Structures are given as structure tokens and as C-alpha cells.
């Protein structure tokens, strides 16, 4: 009687070898697709949001976030409405610069890029205005 070997068993994944049984999400409390709870949960999963909430400025960030949402829902000017919340968040982030440094540096680079772009635009407008003045002066001297 020949014994056939069944298919060899795969060796277990070393990553999951010591892991407990993965938890299965409960379907009872799971929000249905398209619900407000599901949208809020997705927003909370945002890496930036998780990072901002992970530091000492969680409260300021949540206040700022709520202000932005409120302004958007009411079609209000976000900059005007949320100026105080934005200022409070920035002050808090600077006070906790050890944690928020990557964001503060990125913001500084963005501000520098905008300032450079504005300066280049001013230079271009100035050159165009000088060119127009030169053309006008040429027309006057010819006529």
C-alpha cells in the first residue's frame, strides 16, 4: 500500500505566529455606509488629523476643525470666522514645537514659497508696466 503525501502544509506566517486572533469588528455598532458617523470616522482616520490630535494641541485643533466645518456648512468666510481658532492653534503648536516641528517647518516653507512667488509676480508686473510706459513714450516722441 503506497502512502500518498497530502499537499504540504504552508508554514505559518512568522509575523502572525505570536499574534492573538485578530479582532473582528462588531456589526451591531458599525455605522452604515454614508452615515454621519462613518464620515466622522473616516475624517478621524486622516493621518494629519491623527498627528495633530496626538500632541498637546488636541483641544485647539478640535476647536479649529469645528470652526472650519461650521463655516463651510454656513457658507461663511473661513479666514474671517476662524481667525481666533487658527491663531490659538498656531500659538499652541509653537508652544509644543518639539512635537509639531514637522508641521511648523512645512508651514514656514510654504509661506516662503508664497512670498517668493508674490515677489516674482511684482517684478513681472513692474517690468510689464515699464515696457508699456516705454511704448507710450515712443509713440509720443514719434507723433
UniProtKB/TrEMBL annotation:
Signal peptide limits: none
Residue segments, region Disordered: 1-45, 116-143
Comp. bias (Basic and acidic residues): 1-35
Composition skew (Acidic residues), residue ranges: 36-45
Ranges for domain GCK: 44-118
PANTHER family: F26F24.3-RELATED, F7A19.14 PROTEIN-RELATED
Name of the protein in its database record: GCK domain-containing protein
Species this chain originates from: Corchorus capsularis (Jute)
Amino acid at each position: 500500500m503506497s502512502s500518498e503525501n497530502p499537499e504540504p502544509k504552508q508554514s505559518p506566517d512568522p509575523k502572525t505566529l505570536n499574534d492573538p486572533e485578530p479582532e473582528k469588528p462588531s456589526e451591531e455598532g458599525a455605522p452604515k455606509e454614508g452615515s454621519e458617523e462613518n464620515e466622522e470616522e473616516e475624517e478621524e482616520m486622516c493621518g494629519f488629523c491623527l498627528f495633530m490630535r496626538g500632541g498637546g494641541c488636541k483641544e485647539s485643533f478640535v476647536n479649529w476643525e469645528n470652526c472650519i466645518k461650521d463655516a463651510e456648512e454656513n457658507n461663511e468666510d473661513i479666514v474671517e470666522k476662524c481667525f481666533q481658532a487658527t491663531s490659538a492653534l498656531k500659538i499652541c503648536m509653537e508652544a509644543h514645537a518639539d512635537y509639531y516641528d514637522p508641521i511648523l517647518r512645512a508651514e514656514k516653507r510654504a509661506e516662503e514659497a508664497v512670498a517668493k512667488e508674490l515677489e516674482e509676480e511684482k517684478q513681472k508686473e513692474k517690468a510689464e508696466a515699464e515696457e508699456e510706459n516705454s511704448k507710450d513714450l515712443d509713440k509720443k516722441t514719434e507723433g
